[in-house]
Amino acid sequence: PRPHPTIRVRPLTCTETRRGDQQVVHSLGDGAVHVSAARHDATFGFSAVFDAGASQEAVFEGSGMRQLVELATDGFSCTVFAFGQTGSGKTYTLMGPLAQSETQPASPALLGLMQRSFTCLLEQSRSRGSDLALSASYLEIYNEQIRDLLSPGPPCALPLRWSKTRGFYVENQLSVEFESLETIVSLLLQGSQRRRTSAHALNRHSSRSHALLTIHVRSRAGRWGPKHHPAVWVLQAKQGTLCFVDLAGSERVKETGSSGELSAEANSINRSLLALGHCISLLAKPRGKRTHIPYRDSKLTRLLARSLGGSGITLMVACISPSSRCLSETLSTLHYASRARSVTTRP
Fold first, then answer.
1. Annotated binding residues
2. Which residues bind ATP (predicted)?
3. At the topology level of CATH, where does 4-93+112-196+207-221+236-251+260-341 sit?
4. Rounded to an integer, what distance in angstroms lies between the CA atom of residue 222 and that of residue 322?
5. By the number of CB atoms within 10 A of the CB, which of 59, 161, 263, 315 ranks highest?
6. What angle do CA 109, 248, 182 make, to 5 degrees?
């Protein structure tokens, strides 16, 4: 299978409308998106395109997210990651509005892919009784350091290891079991509040780190043995994962007006996104023409190695702005997603 890049075009913001930005991105239907501006006229085709009027539910159902949840319960390694320019709507698509809290929950209609997936997963868990065990871990990669967002106390860097059986993994990360929607949503909020964010000229709540929330799905389904041992109950243990990756947005320091620590963070974000783009470009080549895939170039690509070109099933959500001022970043994101369509995996 190949990744299924889907495009989400956010609405023009009030600031963009006030300053007279033109809308240069238009959905043509049937998975096509058209970019038209001075010296630029291009059409791109994807699995699905969601325009500014698409609801959070429409994105969940139309992107194939429900099928991804079902595959995870069947023992597959599944990943969904949102990428795009800073302020393009990645975190909103995954999590819904940032104003939500335990005392002021978000409107159900605004909940993102994560909460809708949790509901779907728990419904499957209840239908299968005690066969399914669920746990969650939540990490961020900030300035090339991996931090646990669920561990109490001040954040400290965790080592990234390699083994032949597990591939790249994070040592000593906390994994918390859960059985209810309230528990996993509470863990999501707890981790998100500890994540590094800052305000700059393009985004009041800019994510300064890449965040990875992983749901581990352990299944202990069984079956009766073969005919000559019909009374033997054979356990068939499976372990699937469902990983949500909220990438920090690509940004140009000139546009964001960043300096000092913000500028250093931006350089770190852009380096890791460049490494991710390089891996995707090489993976998109035919298998016979591929060279070495440089997963070790960043912590992000190491942790996504299995999802990108190995045994995983991946959904990619590319978030873009329709504003004429963001044209170059929008085109870059669309080309990025187009390359990803050519990557094949062997789940």
1. 84-91
2. 84-91
3. Kinesin (3.40.850)
4. 51
5. 315
6. 40
